[in-house]
Amino acid sequence: MASHIVGYPRMGPKRELKFALESFWDKKSSAEDLQKVAAGLRSSIWKQMADAGIKYIPSNTFSYYDQVLDTTAMLGAVPPRYGWNGGEIGFDTYFSMARGNASVPAMEMTKWFDTNYHFIVPELGPDVRFSYASHKAVDEYKEAKALGVNTVPVLVGPVSYLLLSKSAKGVEKTFSLLSLLPKILPIYKEVVSELKAAGASWIQFDEPTLVLDLDAHQLQAFTAAYADLESTLSGLNVLIETYFADLTSGAYKTLIELKGVTAYGLDLVRGTKTSDLIKTNFPKGKFLFAGVVDGRNIWANDLASSLGTLQALEAIVGKDNLVVSTSCSLLHTAVDLVNETKLDDEIKSWLAFAAQKVVEVNALAKALAGQKDEAFFTSNATAQASRKSSPRVTNEAVQKAAAALKGSDHRRATNVSARLDAQQKKLNLPILPTTTIGSFPQTLELRRVRREFKANKISEDDYVKAIKEEIKKVVDLQEELDIDVLVHGEPERNDMVEYFGEQLSGFAFTVNGWVQSYGSRCVKPPIIYGDVSRPKPMTVFWSSTAQSMTSRPMKGMLTGPVTILNWSFVRNDQPRFETCYQIALAIKDEVEDLEKAGINVIQIDEAALREGLPLRKSEHAFYLKWAVHSFRITNCGVKDTTQIHTHMCYSNFNDIIHSIIDMDADVITIENSRSDEKLLSVFREGVKYGAGIGPGVYDIHSPRIPSTVEIADRINKMLAVLETNIVWVNPDCGLKTRKYAEVKPALNNMVSAAKLLRTQLASAK
């Protein structure tokens, strides 16, 4: 029985690629140095899978930024502003598209389906001249082959690539991106032909958009694309991989009727109804790559249950045609549990990271083939039973409190307009008030202080003194820049979710459980294993300390319950909304303690609310109901004069704008500039928004410093569709990934732009 891995984490067990990328970007190392680190990681990954007995090992899943950008490079679809003149795309052009440069902004970045991973959105139009401009897929296949590993090259499928793209600026709204299919397929044919010539026997096309709600025209594009590719694919085994949800019956029918396709990869973890489609109709002689090992969470697989599922499928598709696989790429999990030295043995026994999931896949394949490792299965069953019965998982008081929430919608008593009036009397802010989103640059010295405190190398007194000094520096800088509503810069926090999880019960933490978010940015998601509560205040001391340093309003900074949920590895033994309500109650306690401590502006970030939206429209209403309700729970008890902010970033918010309004926050700051201000289009189309709103005026994920004129132009675009008295001026997101040399001039220009427009507005009266 064969085994397969959809994809594997790229960063390395200790973030080796992250540090190599940042060293290269900072011009401290060469392209050759970066390529050497990358080659070492690829070699290690391929060898690990080969040693574990995996038959179908992927290649070309390694990326220096993301796989969609790699495909843009392969197709030569470089926007003209980057000055690329043809030939093989190098690092300069590649990273300029991803990060921008001194003269031009980066391409838009958005979430990869409903994950916390991001991709660079292709910008396409009728005039794009596609050309085969990156041979990465073929080069990596040859690289693996030279190491003695025959891999399955992976390409983002042509239809998904176009469906994930956007029309470039200036392109007619009526333009159909799918009309570009005949222009990109010749390049796919070139790539496939080179892979065949190099000796590839299998090829994997990732077509995850098949799980979305697609119309007949979109489904027809898949049929047309693979019919066109059929002759080129002849002689290859072709796997079409889907993941993250069920397929509709129409999408499933389209998939199994594609020309030239040998195998279908299906997510049987999140695609809970997909098995019914397989039972009803599976084409004879085709391969099923059954995704039974969860690629998006870190819980050990219930091997006995998965084996039962596989045996039922084997009876349908045939013994020789069933391949055991992961539900999706393991990119979304941590790398290796072996590196976790501080997790206690009980919790560790409940977990499986990417390296362990590879072993699980192979163990299931061997068991199906009659070579069951009884000791491994017995150990797994013991761990499953331990998790179900452990007293540390359940807190009856928390469950009772969460259950009691269902009788109310938890709205503040006064409408937002009246609240804003009361808040303005207290805060006395100018029009177009300026603020930032929360974090300030995390310097090497600051990271050293936190690291040494965690390692008990410095005392708590020394740590508190150092953090207070950093807060004072950030407060003084903001006052010098004349920012209106300040933040303390979050110097005590390495990560906005990890920081809160460390202080809440029901959470566990890793040392090296890093997961790539985008580029070199990695996060270390907490593990929610049990019922959640707040033993004591989490942020009150630091917020109060910061407020004591200034007479200006100081925001209390919290992460909202939906974002904590969506950016954690969540327990899978109860519905997600139940866990979210528990977190909401914990954050509610913190909000009320901040208010009692004299903090008059409290920001509850819900950066990931849109990210968690189910991929199927039929499931949207239920998710949005409990997600928005969870946010309202956190602040339903505060006074009218306490201003509640929230923040959202790097997703498409236009389709949930009414749910955002229903959150009933006093002010929302929201990413806008990197996505070409498409957020503003909903207001142009007539949506009325009465609360405060700060669409971001510059992209913080690029080192580029915007000018005062550029920022003023963005603000003017906002004023064209929003009332002057509700507009705030702020960056797209937090500043922790930037350097002070970038932050100071950018914020100075931002404040200057706000003042310029205040003057213009005053003189126009």
TrEMBL record:
InterPro entries for this protein: Cbl-indep_Met_Synth_N, Cobalamin-indep_Met_synthase, Met_Synth_C/arc, UROD/MetE-like_sf
Residues that bind 5-methyltetrahydropteroyltri-L-glutamate: 18, 116, 521-522, 567
Domain Cobalamin-independent methionine synthase MetE C-terminal/archaeal: 432-755
Gene Ontology terms, MF aspect: 5-methyltetrahydropteroyltriglutamate-homocysteine S-methyltransferase activity; methionine synthase activity; zinc ion binding
Catalysed reactions listed for this entry: 5-methyltetrahydropteroyltri-L-glutamate + L-homocysteine = tetrahydropteroyltri-L-glutamate + L-methionine
UniProt: Zn(2+) 1 binding residues: 647, 649, 671, 733
Keyword field: Amino-acid biosynthesis, Metal-binding, Methionine biosynthesis, Methyltransferase, Transferase, Zinc
Occurrences of domain Cobalamin-independent methionine synthase MetE N-terminal (ranges): 3-316
Keyword Endoplasmic reticulum in record: no
Cross-referenced Pfam families: Meth_synt_1 (PF08267), Meth_synt_2 (PF01717)
Binding site for L-methionine: 437-439, 490, 605
Cofactor: binding comment: Binds 2 Zn(2+) ions per subunit.
Record-listed Zn(2+) 2 binding positions: 658, 662
Essential cofactor(s): Zn(2+)
This protein's record includes keyword Methyltransferase: yes
Root EC class: transferase
Stated role: Catalyzes the transfer of a methyl group from 5-methyltetrahydrofolate to homocysteine resulting in methionine formation.
Classification via NCBIfam families: met_syn_B12ind, PRK05222.1
Annotated family: Belongs to the vitamin-B12 independent methionine synthase family.
Full protein name: 5-methyltetrahydropteroyltriglutamate--homocysteine S-methyltransferase
Organism: Gossypium australe
Gene that this sequence comes from: metE
